[in-house]
Fold:
Amino acid sequence: MEGVFLSMVLMLSVFLGFELISKVPATLHTPLMSGANAISGITVVGALISAGGELGGLSTYLGAAAVMFAMINVVGGYMVTNRMLSMFKKKDKSQPGEKS
Amino acid sequence: MSLVVINFWYVAAAALFIFGLKKLGSPDSAVKGNIYSAAAMLIAVAVTLFNQNILSFDWIIIAAVAGSIIGVLAAQRVQMTSMPEMVAIFNGSGGIASLLVGWAALFNTGNTLLTDITVVISIVVGGMTFSGSILAWGKLSEIMNSAAVVFSGQRVVNSAIVLSLLTFSVLFCLDPSVSSPYLYLIIGLSILLGMMAVLPIGGADMPVVISLLNSYSGLAACAAGLAINNNILIVAGSMVGAAGIILTNIMCKAMNRSLSHVLFSGFSAAKQATKVEGEVKPITADDAFLILEAAQSVTFVPGYGMAVAQAQHVVRELGELLEKNGADVTYAIHPVAGRMPGHMNVLLAEANVSYDQLIEMEDINPRIGGVDVAVVIGANDVVNPAARNDENSPIYGMPIINVDEARTVFVLKRSMASGFSGVDNPLFFCDNTRMLFGDAKQSIASVVAEFKI
Structure:
């Protein structure tokens, strides 16, 4: 049953993802990409369990390496996305009420 | 914290991820959206640390601190023009993390066949993402030749790799163990496959590859989630996967090519485009200034050349001067201009261009006939009218920005060399086209200087 349940979650989130992302305007595609990239660093959660697990040996080292790589992805991804997004500004002088 | 409580927190994190992505849909709320998404990540990581299976924190702390430092340094130092390379590196780093998590999951006891299959998937997708991204980074940063590499028998070699990868995966799943020799073969072959997949893809096709690798990095996280039975990995991973696929699709449409064509055939200029004959009409910066000063509406059409010349700041300066002069100034952006989706938008945003002046191709084309001057900066194929009216052209059918319909077109260009695809551009010979030869940044700077006199 576990497999069925997980595939259900998978199916629903793929559809949700399609719905959410197709609404993002072309202007924001680069930040969207690096933001999504940061989200894919969620692997860090799995990596933490391996790195701190009781199994020891190779499993711990693999987990620790995974934590490092995933953290690069997470921390770097969110910071660079924030840096980019804060550059997107609208000048005040343009006529008001012309919101897209 | 018990596993149930942790999983409830994961649900909360998933909700925040979704909400964050939703907020990313508009430039006004996007900064907040990114913060929500980061908060979701923080929650997910923090509650995981309360997992009772985690006994020792030594390695976690060392690895997390090391990774964070590298991430912070990379994010702060990267130039906006090098964003595509940065994203490629981050993709690769996510890919290798998924590979390692899958590998480490093999050490768990009581794995079912389903677990073993998902472990193999996370290793293969993770490995491909890793090596493909590294190669893409090499091409983008021009450490290596960015052109497509195509050799005879490429398909045979690739098919052989895929087939042996499948065979070894089946053999591995029949007798899964950490010491199985098949495991190393699978890891090696998936890394090889990732490189082979990116090798035949060159320069202007890079936006497709970056989007696709982005999607893979999500799918790899998703597979790792299936391997370790973790919901949050599945939800977050599959949303990233969906995002990458949508972007890939948009990029392919904007080039009028199918995904398989981009992936497998390189860019073949095999068809001989109709030779363009004619005379180009060069113009000096002084004359360009006089025309621009009289213009009522001006549209800038940037391409990768603007990024290379780092010309975005002078372009914005010229734009502001023109606005002060009473002209209506817009920036028309083709979906595949640059080396990743939205590349030009980020550069112009960096230069402080208001985002409501950034116009998409579909919105500018219907009114381009009323534009007095279209200034093409370092773009070539995306403004090539041959895509519209020369059936023999290799880029025939690709949607373009119809700058040739504007009253006057300025093309800023180093020399008469053709663009990445090697296709001649009849735009240069049009009656209403004036060529402003030289470095884009210097050319625009000299026009700006004229305005200030």
